[in-house]
Design goal:
GO terms for molecular function: metallodipeptidase activity. This is Peptidase M19. Helix content is about 40%, strand content about 15%. The protein has a single domain, classed as TIM Barrel (Alpha-Beta Barrel), CATH 3.20.20. By secondary structure, it is an alpha/beta fold. It is globular, with a radius of gyration of 18 Å.
């Protein structure tokens, strides 16, 4: 069994502490995918973060590795290391060039979604006017498939996600999204989207963010309730975990340079209040209590292992091995 954290957020700064990564390792997680850039972050911020994270991870080979294959993650599990992958949240860092996908892949980015809450030239965001996938977006889906990168639909509006899932040749994931039926928030997804994801062979990874769970202080039981909903709708083989923990660090400013407006990206009318400052997250250590919480909602051993990581392993084996398609 592999424990797979589909999405987490260190501060977007070259000097961000790796203490959360050590907590993941101590909690028994074998692979974590961390964000290295969003639509609001310029390349002048993304590239130093990516370069620094890569160099720092490689400087500690006894603790970490940057995976290219599932076999790398299995090696990390077997040797007590943490496999750390990267993801992009939004298509703006691609500069409207499909060939940028393969470049990021070569730097360790193995997962991407196309819009961060707001519309762009590729896709529609979940807190903007419905737009759908553009012609350029269809080219980007082909580029993601061709590069063997996981096609993610988190933060993306309903119509665009359905378009992506219709055009993708490979399974599609929601790396951190919850059922709208259980928590009425624009970041959450409809039963239609959940079914469409499952139809691709993909996985919906449940977020540990308070507003998306519909609770004030997230616990394992809250996550398990959302897992059970998706499992009952489409089968336990289509559920995973992406706690989406946003870490901050005293004295470290990781805001985008220039005139940055948090209210644009996290609009008050969508229920964010003061940006994301009021968000509460399930702690990393929730990973240690999740097995019991999943069993408490009626899951058997194979289903529990699937949710904790083996379902994402199945998708990654198919997608990451598809570069030659």
């Amino acid at each position: 069994m592999i424990r797979w954290e589909a999405h987490s957020c260190l501060p977007l700064h070259p000097d961000a502490s790796f203490e959360p990564l050590e907590r993941y390792r101590a909690a028994g997680v074998h692979h974590v995918c961390i964000n290295v850039g969003m639509d609001m972050n310029p390349l002048s911020q993304i590239l130093p973060v990516l370069a620094a994270f890569r160099a720092r991870l490689r400087a500690e080979p006894a603790r970490y590795l940057i995976p290219c294959t599932v076999a790398d993650i299995e090696h990390a599990r077997n040797t007590g290391k943490l496999a750390v992958g990267f993801d992009l949240e939004g298509a703006l860092p691609l500069l409207e060039r499909p060939e940028m996908v393969a470049l990021y892949r070569d730097l360790g980015v193995r997962q991407i979604h196309f819009a961060y809450n707001r519309n762009n030239s590729v896709a529609g965001g979940c807190h903007d006017e419905p737009q759908g996938l553009t012609a350029l977006g269809r080219q980007m889906v082909q580029a993601v498939n061709g590069a063997g990168v996981l096609m993610d639909c988190a933060h993306t509006e309903r119509r665009t996600t359905l378009d992506i899932m219709a055009h993708s040749r490979h399974p599609v994931v929601f790396s951190h999204a919850n059922p709208l039926a259980l928590a009425d928030h624009g970041r959450n997804i409809t039963d239609e989207q959940i079914r469409a994801c499952a139809a691709t062979g993909g996985v919906v990874c449940i977020s540990g963010v308070s507003k998306f769970l519909g609770c004030d202080a997230p616990q394992a039981s809250d996550l398990a309730r959302h897992v059970a909903y998706v499992a009952n709708l489409v089968g336990a083989q289509h559920v995973g975990l992406g706690l989406d923990i946003g870490f901050s660090q005293a004295g470290l400013n990781d805001d985008p340079p220039g005139a940055f407006d948090p209210g644009f990206w996290w609009p008050a009318q969508a229920g964010y209040g003061r940006g994301i400052s009021q968000m509460r997250y399930a702690p990393i250590e929730t990973w240690q209590t999740l097995p019991d919480a999943l069993r408490a909602v009626g899951m058997g051993p194979q289903e529990v292992n699937g949710v904790l990581g083996d379902n994402m392993v199945r998708v990654a084996r198919q997608v990451w091995g598809a570069e030659a398609d």
